[in-house]
Write a structure and sequence with these properties.
Rossmann fold; eight-stranded mixed β-sheet; 295 residues; alpha/beta; globular
């Protein structure tokens, strides 16, 4: 585990060129002082990082591209990065409410959301709990219920200790950015509790009506069976030539584990094209002209 964390952190360091920052600050959000950065102009796009990550380790390689076409609002969630923890559990629902509060603070009525792993779960919950604030979703390595995680996941999470992170880039980044660098063990404990909490959002996810792009690695921690279930739940269809393109899109990154979704350089290059293309598309689309059954 420790070796894996070190490799991940070194890869992130190599893949994160500095991004021009136009504005940053702390926003009041349900008792938090939530750190955020704003880059670029255009339609608002909120970036939601994964567990144990921050803006630099998750997003700096993509922000320059995304900020060419969008007003990027990158945030650091409860207890992560420069957002100090408070006396409450870390839950998807609370983090979603924090994001909604940040949008209100910034005077943003609607935004697209791009989340990875834990951040993708937050994005889904924002769409469930604050549907009027969401225009589109890009969810990388998300699940909509606990049965989407593989056998042995709980045992792996239960085995995690703060000592496993000793000397790792994740721990180093936390100590560098956090207002309370001594509280890393508290973050580990809260994230373990989050990852051991069983949930089932399928009925609520089925109600999400905005265009959504799901991204997974073909060796992701999310099972292929669950990916297929999410695709169907969100309205995916087969044979787009005859039926047209739905509001849902699915991308499978080859040769990619859960961590590899953002840590493999070629995947970042794919996302630099794929995500802006999805955000700009008109969806759903009718059948292709000239195809039997088309218009």
């Amino acid at each position: 585990m420790k070796t894996l964390l070190t490799v991940i952190g070194l890869a992130a360091a190599l893949l994160t060129p500095a991004a021009a920052q136009e504005k940053s600050g702390l926003a009041p959000a349900n008792g938090l002082q939530m750190y955020y950065e704003i880059h670029g102009e255009g339609t608002p796009l909120v970036l939601l990082h994964g567990a144990y990550m921050s803006i630099p380790s998750n997003w700096e390689a993509l922000i320059p591209t995304l900020a060419k076409t969008h007003r990027v609002i990158a945030v650091e969630l409860q207890g992560h990065g420069r957002t100090a923890d408070i006396d409450r559990p870390i839950t998807y629902e609370a983090m979603a409410d924090d994001v909604a509060a940040l949008l209100d603070h910034l005077g943003i009525e609607k935004a697209a959301l791009f989340g990875y792993s834990m951040g993708a779960g937050v994005a889904l919950q924002v769409a469930v709990r604050h549907a009027d604030k969401v225009e589109r979703i890009v969810a990388a390595s998300a699940s909509m219920s606990y049965d989407g995680l593989p056998e042995g996941f709980e045992a792996m999470v239960a085995s995690i200790t703060p000592e496993m992170f000793a000397g790792s880039p994740m721990e180093a980044e936390y100590k560098q950015l956090s207002p309370h660098p001594e509280k890393f063990p508290v973050l580990v404990d809260k994230l373990k509790t989050l990852d051991l909490q069983h949930f089932d959002w399928q009925a609520d996810v089925a109600k999400i009506a905005v265009p959504t792009l799901l991204i997974f690695g073909d060796a992701d921690v999310i099972t292929l069976e669950h990916i297929a279930k999410m695709h169907a739940t969100l309205g995916g269809v087969a044979n787009g030539d005859l039926n047209g393109l739905p509001k849902l899109q699915l991308a499978m990154l080859p040769g990619t584990s859960h961590m590899g979704v953002f840590m493999v350089p070629q995947n970042l290059e794919i996302m630099k094209t794929m995500v802006p293309t999805f955000l700009a598309q008109t969806l759903p689309q009718p059948p292709m002209a000239g195809v039997p059954g088309g218009e």
